[in-house]
Amino acid sequence: MSTKNSPAQIREEILRLLSGKRRSISLKHLLRALNLPRNQRKLLARELEKMVQEGLLERTGRKSYSLPGRPGYITGTIQGHRRGFAFLRSESGEEFYINPRHLHGAVHRDQVVIRLTGGRGRRREGEVINILKRGQASLVGTLYQAGSRFYVLPDDRRVAAEILVSRRALGSARPGDKVVVEVQQWSRGRQPSRGRIVELIGPPGTPATEEKLFRYKHNLPGDFPEAVKQALELLPGEEEIEAIAVAEQRRDLRQMPLVTIDDEQARDFDDAVSLELLDGGGYRLGVHIADVSHYVRRGSALDRESLDRGTSVYLPDQVIHMLPPLLSEKLCSLQAGRDRLALSVLMDLSPAGELLHYEIFPSLIRVRERLSYRQVEAQLEGRGEEYPLAHPELAPMLGQMDLLAAELRRRRLERGALNLDIPEARIELDQEGRPVSVERRRQGRSESLIEEFMLLCNEVVASCCTEAGLPLIYRVHSVPQEEK
């Protein structure tokens, strides 16, 4: 090769050399074969690593490479087992057994190359010959002491490793504590794994410790990244909502009697309902959903982060939000007395609950009152004085909602819907997060009311999207078996 070569030329020559090889080729051999000057040897090493990452090459040793799919060598991910052995799951989904003696320092979730060593019957076996990438940089486990030695055993028993920790790296952790250890050196030959404690979780068994362990076990996200925080600073404030609605020509529904009905412990409110009587009989039911899409634009930092998180996770004393609290608890939470941007579905229904007409549109709303299920239940059962309304004029609307929900439920059951009235258990915790009582709860009329309204709204939106040819994810259940 010439004294000056581009990365593309080097790649082409590497692939040409390997195409005629049945076995792997070492870095030393490549250096000789390519006849590169000394100042381009680092360039060769970088290109080899890039080609491995891009799937153009496989690393079959510390400094040897081959084309992908070379007979007798498989690349994949280690799936550890608590009994010490492991399996390699290849990219094609095949599995290969690996004896503990043949792991050579590889642990659960590592990306490795194995050499097939045969096997008996239908079980194919292999031996790890190279660890391409470690699957975990830190682990959760328990700190132990044996004489003057301190080590961490991972809670995930699929990781068959003891991580030695020096006394200087213990911090305030004590034997028996749950900790997070950062692995600084994985075992090689007879050399043990070594690491340092980066977080003290706490003594096992306490609510605070168990909650942290739950977060680590399920890889739940922590704080929002800087890009999201910067995006939040650019969002409009509450004082701009009315101007936004005018500029977007949203329909103003602030005079409509909207309420939210949720559990007493609810922390954010993303839907509200309303009901008005039509002239000549019938109802106009409204379901109003916070318009998150106005704030979370497609492809934005907020969109990417919410996609990664997928959902909000509700723990006993906190919420791990899918959206930052500025949105989930403020701008996109339908708080009573506050102007909010929403998507509204208005449905005209006959007295018997038959759908006559519907509209779906962006709106500007203002919730009249935040109600709890218990509060609405008391109103429907004639015990309103126990949980009085801040706006007593809403009481007749709640009664009308109850009547409409009963008609909607009747029609749904006539269509063949299943009635799965499964009781729930509500666990009451003390201030330290320890359970003190368990209450058995069944769905009341207030919860059934909201359920019927949301089911109808979902059917209307699904029908609208189907008629318009819009893509939609449908929730479909197979026909139930009568014997079950």
Question: How do you describe this structure in short?
Answer:
With 484 residues, the protein is α+β, with helices and mostly antiparallel strands. It has four domains: 7-66, Orthogonal Bundle (Arc Repressor Mutant, subunit A); 73-133, Nucleic acid-binding proteins (OB fold (Dihydrolipoamide Acetyltransferase, E2P)); 138-217, OB fold (Dihydrolipoamide Acetyltransferase, E2P), CATH 2.40.50; 226-410, no CATH class.
Topology:
Layout (H helix, E strand, L loop, with lengths): L6 H13 L5 E2 H8 L6 H13 L4 E4 L2 E3 L6 E8 L5 E5 L4 E4 L12 E8 L6 E9 L4 E9 L2 E6 L8 E3 L12 E8 L7 E10 L4 H11 L8 H8 L7 H7 L3 E2 L6 E4 L8 E7 L5 E8 L10 H9 L3 E3 L2 E3 L4 H7 L7 E11 L5 E12 L2 E4 H8 L14 H20 L9 E6 L5 E7 L3 H24 L16
Parallel strand pairs: 11-13, 14-21, 15-22
Antiparallel strand pairs: 1-3, 2-3, 4-5, 4-7, 5-6, 7-8, 9-10, 9-12, 10-11, 12-13, 16-17, 17-20, 18-19, 20-21, 23-24
Helix pairs in contact: 10-11
